[in-house]
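LOG
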Amino acid sequence: MTTIEALLADISAFLRDVEMAETTFGRHAVNDGKFVGRLRSGAGVTVGTIDRVRAYMAAEREKVRAAAEAATATAPAAPGEAS
């Protein structure tokens, strides 16, 4: 698997996990809504851009994790559960 193939696989998994469109991802990660499509078409990418993309995915996953923890911590106890 090439670096680009691995990156595309990671992006696809990320998009599924956070339920985000490719264009939204591209705009947020690298200010290019066609970024993922260009990668699939064989466009090159710099190491710096790969780093930016991976950093964006890590930061977004952390936000999702923190939001889930906060929601769990503030959720009212179900009837019959100890609070």
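LOG (cont.) second protein
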Amino acid sequence: MVRVRLALASAVVLSAGVLTACSSDPTPSAVTIGWADNTRQAVQVSWKDSNAPNRISIEGIVSSSPSYIKYLAAGEPNSWAIPTSAFPPDGNYKIALAVGTSQGGITSKLARSPMFDTDGPQRPSDAVATPSGKDVVVTWKVPPPAQDFTPGDPLDVPKGSQVYQPVIGSNGQPFRAVGAGTTSTRQVVKNVKPPYFFQLRAKNEWASLTGGEISARTSYTTAAVPTLWTFGHQMMIRGRTVLQEISCAESRCLAQQNTAAGLTVVVLAQNKAGGPWVQAGRGTTQPGGHFEVRVNTVGSRSYRAYVPAASRAGSLSTESSSKTYLTRSRLQIQGAGYSGGNLHNRNDVINAVVVVRPVVNSAAMLQFWNGKTWGNVKATPIRNGRATLAFKATKPGLFAYRFLVPGTSYLGTTVYGTATPSLVLRVR
């Protein structure tokens, strides 16, 4: 009999427990939300109920629901601050309230807050750095905000409250702030010298992201310039520009060398020491930082390759210049030979001709090869860049002559003299 009574008692207790778990408590009411304080680091949710234990969760509207659940014991205030880190950015959510415990589950219907969005900051882009003395002025663009699907929700903040924090990474150092956060799209960074890596940290009440990067680089330019060239002929100047830039990981930034295509290269020329430098040619770097620039040569001049400072969206590079090289210019033999060709009869009058550039009025020396050395034959005047000398072929054979033309000046520069190639004459 004792065993039967105990079994009946247990059945009564179990039945009572099941009825309590399935009963429905009053649903919480008047669910409101707002910012916990001016820092906007937490969302304060408040509600009304009959002093019951509560279960708080976040529901995604179209968005996935985050795994945030908070239980409050009976007797605790009907208010709770949910950190903003609990809300995934760029979604739409409601906060759900119910009566319930972690052991007994939910014992009321859900009450929900108004829907609100967690739109994150707009990513800044197209940042441009403009040097200004020792400082640099950085400007950037921000896309228009995404469509607000919950206009006027309780957590909306005034437009234009997104903050941009400028940071810079330099060699061997982590990122450091270089100015206060701003709601503007312009920042003056004081006393900054390349190479460095500039970045903007965009922040609003829901999230933080990076954008508006600028790689500020130094440049180093080398060039190869011929030491001797012919007047009026195009001369090729070759070289390379190497950049030093900063690459940043999470905790440290390091300097590394790089090259870039598309940098402007200007070849400058100087007629005499202390004189002005003028542009003689222009080109751009190719892959690997290499460049080739053709220049039209005149008199003897000094040359150097110059890469001007360049600033465009996302990059800044300093100016650099190669060493200075002197190229000596020599006269151009535009034509030389014998009138009527190089085959003549004995006792013919031979007319030897030479034409030079630049056009000069001077004197040329006709020389004869005696088998060992060149010997002078006769000088003849050069008029308007042309000289002709007549002589008589007295015996048959194979002979060699040449013109030796002295140097001159052109537009204040020196043009060195030269000799024609050997002019072979065949007499029969």
